[in-house]
UniProtKB/TrEMBL annotation:
Its EC number is 2.7.1.90. It holds the Pfam family PFK. Homodimer or homotetramer. The gene is pfp. This is Pyrophosphate--fructose 6-phosphate 1-phosphotransferase. The lineage of its organism: Bacteria, Bacillati, Actinomycetota, Actinomycetes, Geodermatophilales. Signal peptide: none annotated. The keyword Transferase applies.
Length: 340
């Protein structure tokens, strides 16, 4: 059996742990693994590397992906599917393991529907992929954001100023919710719940009254209910996603004007995606890689390995990519108890 593997979309800590686990498990079973570089681009351009056990030594703790990644959409490229199938035939690939989020696995679902043998591995720091309780990368990102919030509390209190922390999360506020709860934020703003600026101002003033300074955690995709403060660069990627950025600075300016207290914005950005994975993410990524090879060897296709409770199980990719997993209202209500 020859297995192809690629990593697509935004990188995240744990991708290398998946690659290592796939290679180790496949090699032990007598299978061979070929890596394609930079996501779907590697299949379009036939840019590949043979992955044996020696090639994956030392990968477990390394952030990023040794295969490289891109947001290439092969369905937006002329004869994209045909070019990819030709590459797979040339390398005599029996099954493909794409590791990615909604976009990468959306392409995987289409290829599976066209008859290709595909077993997906879910990845995104945003944790917004449906069908799995958690994706690897999320725990690491939350840890980075929480550490930042812990540090910002002490400097904010010393200067009696509001600190607005902008975290990643385009459509879903999981990082803001978890990092904000873990870090004791005074307000958490997420894309799922358009916020009321008056309410945020009131929470900040209340926090100042207690003798401490407010920390406001805001997802990059969060918006006020009145539609103001919309911030994006206007640029889009190959899957049509707008590049976000700027809500933290815009909100800090409004809070400074409305509270009469100095406000500063901190954008955590790609720091959340870089560096070594947490223990949880190393184990989850490793288990996903092992389960992907099990699924391939069992002859499954059109599935994605997923965490359900403490078990890793195959679920239909098409179901997992049909909609995003957003923060439910009741989870946000838990965090609201601590606002102000
Ligand atoms: O999809 C994961 C993610 O980290 C989002 O939270 C964020 O909006 C996006 O990637 C940023 O992508 P890029 O690095 O391509 O700007």
């Amino acid at each position: 059996m020859r297995i192809g593997i690629l990593t697509g979309g935004g990188d995240c800590p744990g991708l290398n742990a998946v690659i290592r686990a796939v290679v180790r498990k496949a090699t032990a079973a007598g299978d061979e693994v070929v890596g394609f570089r930079d996501g779907w681009r590697g299949l379009l351009d036939d840019d590949s590397v043979v992955l044996d056990v020696a090639a994956v030594r030392g990968l477990l703790p390394r952030g990023g992906t040794v295969l490289g990644t891109s947001r290439t959409n092969p369905y937006a490229v002329e004869d994209g599917p045909g070019r990819m199938l030709a590459t797979l035939e040339r390398h005599r690939i029996d099954a493909l393991v794409p590791v990615g989020g909604e976009d990468t696995l959306g392409v995987a679902a289409k290829l599976a529907a066209e008859g290709l043998r595909v077993v997906g591995v879910p990845k995104t720091i945003d944790n917004d992929l449906d069908g799995t309780d958690y994706t690897f990368g999320f725990d690491t990102a939350v840890g980075v954001a929480m550490e930042a919030i812990d540090r910002l509390h002490t400097t904010g209190d010393s200067h009696h100023r509001t600190l607005v922390v902008e975290v990643m999360g385009r459509h879903a506020g999981w990082i803001a919710l978890h990092a904000g709860m873990a870090g004791g934020a005074n307000v958490i703003l997420i894309p799922e719940n358009p916020f009321d600026v008056d309410g945020v101002v009131a929470h900040c003033l209340h926090r100042f009254e207690s003798g401490f300074s407010p920390i406001v955690v805001v997802s990059e995709g969060a918006r006020p209910a009145d539609g103001g403060l919309v911030t994006s660069t206007g640029q889009t990627d190959a899957f049509g996603h707008v590049r976000l950025g700027g809500i933290g600075a815009a909100l800090a300016a409004v809070l400074e004007a409305r509270t009469g207290r100095e406000s500063r914005a901190v954008v955590l950005g790609h720091v959340q995606r870089g560096g070594t994975p947490s223990p949880f993410d190393r184990v989850l990524a490793t288990r996903f890689g092992l389960a992907a090879v099990d699924a391939v060897d069992a002859g499954l296709s059109g599935v994605m390995v997923a965490l359900r409770g403490t078990d890793v199980v195959p679920v239909p990719i098409a179901e997992a990519t049909a909609q995003l997993k957003l923060v439910p209202r009741e989870r946000y209500a838990e965090a609201e108890v601590f606002f102000g």
